[in-house]
Fold this protein.
Amino acid sequence: MPVRRPRPTVLLLSSASTLPTLGRRLGRRGIRLVRLDAVVASGSPPGLLAQHLDRFGPYDTVALSSRAAVTAFVRPLRRHGRLREPEVEFWAVGPETARALRLVGVRRVRRATAEGAEPLCRALAGRRRRIVCPRSDRAGPALARSLEADGHRVLDLIAYRVRAGPRLSPRERSSARAAAVVIATSPSAITHFRAMVDRPTFDHLARAAQWVVLGPRTAAAARGHGLRRIGVAPSASVQRFTPYLLGVLAHATS
């Protein structure tokens, strides 16, 4: 009888809401996805967010750089009637963030012609705006500062904080070590994963696995952690991400 080869394994380091349909798409192709919630987000109280908005005053634009910002900022304030939706444009840096906005009921969702912060800034150039930029405590103020440099008035708002998930059990570490490809969706995902595993596990994956990251910031962080086999995905859209990942996985397991 022919020897049955084990299913290839992909390890996803992310928040719980990132690439939500990827596991189903890979499963149809016989690929096992191990999802580790390496980025655990906790949102600020809605009342505190509303206070910051009140102090900032009227705004006409909300610029969102992640699905987590939708969950931590848009969802609770919309529920409490504190978002002036008919008068506000909601801009998303990528397709998954735009999709998250539509899922919570926001109708005026706009995107730049390309993904990322720089295309978003170019798309918002022109008339002066009053922009709210909700972000995590780890994301940094780069987007807000770029928008301010273009003449906009910006509220750089920490809407949620992120921390590492719990340390992995021996069984979870064994499952992670089996990965041929590791996906890291943010710099925090890599940093937090290192805190969740022992050094031999991280060193093994750094040496043996192909890493796929989202965006240049995560690629730079990966190199800072000593990773060398790095590929940058062309998009955070699961429709475009999946074919790219399948190509990487085919090369990694050949």
